[in-house]
Amino acid sequence: MTSAVPAARGTDGTGPTAIVVGAGIIGATAAYELQKAGVATTLIDADAPGMGCSYGNAGAISPGSVAPLAMPGVLRSVFDMLRDPEGPLHVRPMYLPRALPWLLRFAAAARPARVERIAAELHDLHRGAIEAHEALAREIGAPELVQRRGHLHLYPDERALAKDAGSWALRRRFGVTVARLDRARILELEPAVGPRYAIGMHLPDHAMVVSPHRYVECIVAAYRRRGGRLATNRVTRVDARGGGWTCTGVNDAWHADHLVVAAGVGSGALLAPLGIRPPIESQRGYHVTFIGVPRPTTRVVVLADRKAFTTPMEEGFRIAGTVEIAGLEPPPNPRRIAVLERIARETFRALDGATARSWMGHRPCMPDTLPWIGPAPKHPGLWFAFGHGHTGVTDAPGTARRLRDAITGSR
Q: What CATH architecture does domain 5-54+214-279+369-408 belong to?
């Protein structure tokens, strides 16, 4: 292992420097904004950019996602989660003792007054997300990756819609434009939707990223064109040293004035030696991507009763979803993959004959749905950017700009 070396400084040799650990969409966008603002930045990840959750998500840009995962009445579903291994929410019984502290905090966040405060914070974080993504995509030379075509949430009947009444009420209170559609109007937008779904909730001004992985690659390429440095290495330790921060990797080390931790579910282990223990948990998400047939939809279509998002991607037609709390170590659960594939084929008959490819990743989730963004208390120069859960794509530009403004002192 080599000794720690300074990250490259600005052209005058006196500018600030930063290290960003984690090259998913959050870390990549943060590194890009810092580099653009004149902060000489090094981006470090054990894998190639965008190969974590940024590779396999549904690509939804959802500024209307103001409802936290923990809504009033969530405790009533706990037993269902444990009983049904094929349900959209599942806790593996063997992992329950380790997950219990997180689940208790999750349940506590479902108090009505707390839900309102969380929704207000999410609304503020999501503000301007679509416009920010459109501007970013143009800036990095890939405007085709961000498409504003709306989202369509589908329900089989009034009973299913009623289960989400609280979430839709929150959206409307925060000014989200929503139109209710009957079956005929659903088919006007998406003729391939199967007969199961009779009620639609249309968010016309929402958007999608049609290749999340390529988006991150393009962001990192633009960052490097501006002089940003990229290191492929697993960071094993971070230390405050010499008025800044040193990151030690498997076979190298780096030093800078500022350190941004954007390592997703790995952020907790990295911060624990500093006495910082974020309540972060992996919500294992799966996707199935169908190739070899035309995409049956033109926008994000959410099968709301099954908590599954479908998106017409560049790579094929993707269905993504389910929440499985089982930790980092077990391999992907083939049963979860099979359920997603079956749901997609039942809903969209146009997928007959398509080849299916599957994936599993670890969403970094906080019990109250709120990510940690900003300075670490009592640790000058250390910054948080993790825990975005299901809205990492939506909030990447907003998170990056908050960090940039704070680090550069412009806000």
A: 3-Layer(bba) Sandwich (3.50)
